[in-house]
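Run log // design_07
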């Protein structure tokens, strides 16, 4: 596929933006590919001048383009600043001369976007990338970007002309268009809510003790339970290991005694739990049982259900002390949580 060439590099930039919607922290990439389609006139010019272009493994011909596997990188979800890395590359050949461009890397800054490649022992700026007409489409957590336009850099034109003893390559030469399909290694949460359906036994026990349960704004009481707005967090896109942060909380009160549990953070790791601010201190208040976890992804919505929540020893001790009782015990089933989070 000799007509596919420098455009491959452009694709990479798209991938970068693809994964960079509107977040504040950096998000890492797990996979996907960038596919380049050479502009017909550029492809024809290369062919007429005896210059062939072929993929370097594991890049491969795919349809009418060449696909370059995405191996990683990270970007800022707000500014799109960052890098996206690829394996494989392109080999240009004319007569007995061969130039290999490998390990494409897209750099997106505040003022410009470029694509670089490894050439020999150094790294060369190959393309300047325009995203003015790029179109972003999201399906699930993956992102596809089309319409990225790439132009040859002066540095690359000079190097290719010198290698092939020609004047064919010029700065600003239109290389073509690129399509990027990027898969994130992690997702950042932009909103949604976690709902806790109180266990009937726990509700009855609290009622028998005269302890009232109410949401702390902006948490609300709904038909499904207490809903706590999700304010942020980040999780692995496959295992969902990570954190989910919330606003609002729960107020437990009896007479003049009031205990506020606020600013919940769900931690999904080897020992899943939920922590809260209690009197200015962050305390682990709930153990989370994920053995019956159900997970679904629809568009940018991630729903995790069937999470069983029970009191930790620390929370049980604090509540017993506050309300002068011994009714609260470690492992007391509090309810079932459902996380319905929107990914950026």
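design_07 sequence
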């Amino acid at each position: 596929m000799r007509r596919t060439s420098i455009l491959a590099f452009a694709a990479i930039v798209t991938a970068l933006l693809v994964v960079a919607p509107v977040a504040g922290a950096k998000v890492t990439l797990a996979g996907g590919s960038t596919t380049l389609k050479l502009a017909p006139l550029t492809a024809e010019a290369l062919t007429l001048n005896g210059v062939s272009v072929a993929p370097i493994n594991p890049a491969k011909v795919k349809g009418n383009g060449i696909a370059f596997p995405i191996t990683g990188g990270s970007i800022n979800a707000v500014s799109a600043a960052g890098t996206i890395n690829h394996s494989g590359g392109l080999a240009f050949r004319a007569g007995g001369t061969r130039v290999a461009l490998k390990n494409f890397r897209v750099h997106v800054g505040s003022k410009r976007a470029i694509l670089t490649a490894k050439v020999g022992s150094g790294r060369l700026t190959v393309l300047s990338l325009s995203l003015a007409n790029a179109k972003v489409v999201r399906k699930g957590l993956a992102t596809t970007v089309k319409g990225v336009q790439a132009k040859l850099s002066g540095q690359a034109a000079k190097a290719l002309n010198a290698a092939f003893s020609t004047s064919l390559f010029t700065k600003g030469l239109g290389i073509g268009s690129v399509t990027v399909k990027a898969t994130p290694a992690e997702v950042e949460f932009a909103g949604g809510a976690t709902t806790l359906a109180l266990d009937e036994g726990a509700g009855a026990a609290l009622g028998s003790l005269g302890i009232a349960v109410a949401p702390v704004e902006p948490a609300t009481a709904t038909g499904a339970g207490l809903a706590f707005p999700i304010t942020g967090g980040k999780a692995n896109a496959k295992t969902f290991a990570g954190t989910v942060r919330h606003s609002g909380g729960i107020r437990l009160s009896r007479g003049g005694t009031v205990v506020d549990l606020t600013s919940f953070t769900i931690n999904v790791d080897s020992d899943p739990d939920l922590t809260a601010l209690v009197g200015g201190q962050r305390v682990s208040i709930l153990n989370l049982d994920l053995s019956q976890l159900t997970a679904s992804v629809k568009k940018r919505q991630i729903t995790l259900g069937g999470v069983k929540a029970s009191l930790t020893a620390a929370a049980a001790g604090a509540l017993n002390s506050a309300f002068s009782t011994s009714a609260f015990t470690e492992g007391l089933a509090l309810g079932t949580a459902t996380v319905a989070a929107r990914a950026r």
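Helices lie at 7-18, 40-48, 154-164, 200-208, 313-323.
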